[in-house]
UniProtKB/TrEMBL annotation:
GO biological process: cell redox homeostasis; cellular response to oxidative stress
Annotated Thioredoxin domain residues: 7-164
Enzyme class: oxidoreductase
Keywords tagged on the record: Antioxidant, Disulfide bond, Oxidoreductase, Peroxidase, Redox-active center
GO CC, one annotated term: cytoplasm
UniProt source species: Propioniferax innocua
One of the record's GO molecular function terms: thioredoxin peroxidase activity
Annotated protein name in UniProt: thioredoxin-dependent peroxiredoxin
NCBIfam families: PRK09437.1
Keyword Disulfide bond belongs to the record: yes
Biological role: Thiol-specific peroxidase that catalyzes the reduction of hydrogen peroxide and organic hydroperoxides to water and alcohols, respectively. Plays a role in cell protection against oxidative stress by detoxifying peroxides and as sensor of hydrogen peroxide-mediated signaling events.
Oligomer status and interactors: Monomer.
Catalytic activity of the protein: a hydroperoxide + [thioredoxin]-dithiol = an alcohol + [thioredoxin]-disulfide + H2O
Family named by the database record: Belongs to the peroxiredoxin family. BCP/PrxQ subfamily.
């Protein structure tokens, strides 16, 4: 089973280039000079992942007003991500990591407990990455084993992003 060292605040963020739901490559360096939430989730169109994606969509404008982008990454194929985006009217890019290389680089894939058993899979994780002008990222928030429900609200509080009114 995979066992990767977890990333921490101050660590270099692993660079990535992955296809989005439309097959267009999206790279961490595309966000040069910006901040981006990079969150990893197990599978599109499952209850927890849907809750989390809808919550990020509901908060998307507040994140953008705070200067923060949002990107979701899963091992799903782009076609499935497109169906998920369209079905739930999601407002941010969903990226496909079929080979799990980015998931592994962020230690978001490995051994986890599921209903009391150890299994290998996606570890629901969220990072805030500060991307410099050259496109290199530094981790400013690293959260592993997050719960889908309530996670986005908690992240907004931690980042001091106000509610939209």
């Amino acid at each position: 089973m995979t066992d990767t060292t977890r990333l921490a605040v101050g660590d270099a963020a692993p660079a990535f280039t992955l296809p989005d739901a439309d097959g267009k490559d999206v790279s961490l360096s595309d966000f040069a000079g910006e901040r981006v939430v990079v969150y990893f989730y197990p599978a599109a169109m499952t209850p927890g992942c849907t809750t989390q994606a809808i919550d990020f969509t509901a908060a998307f404008n507040a994140f953008r007003e705070a200067g923060i982008n949002v990107v979701g990454i899963s091992p799903d194929k782009p076609e499935k991500l497109g169906r998920f985006r369209d079905k739930e009217s999601l407002s941010f890019p969903l990226l496909s990591d079929i080979e799990k290389s980015t998931l592994t680089a962020y230690a978001a894939y490995g051994v986890k407990k599921l209903y009391g058993k150890e299994v290998e899979g996606v570890i629901r994780s969220t990072f805030v990455v500060d991307v410099d002008a050259d496109g290199n990222g530094t981790i400013s928030v690293a959260q592993y084993n997050v719960r889908a429900k309530g996670h986005v609200d908690r992240l907004r509080r931690e980042l001091d992003i106000a509610d939209e009114d």
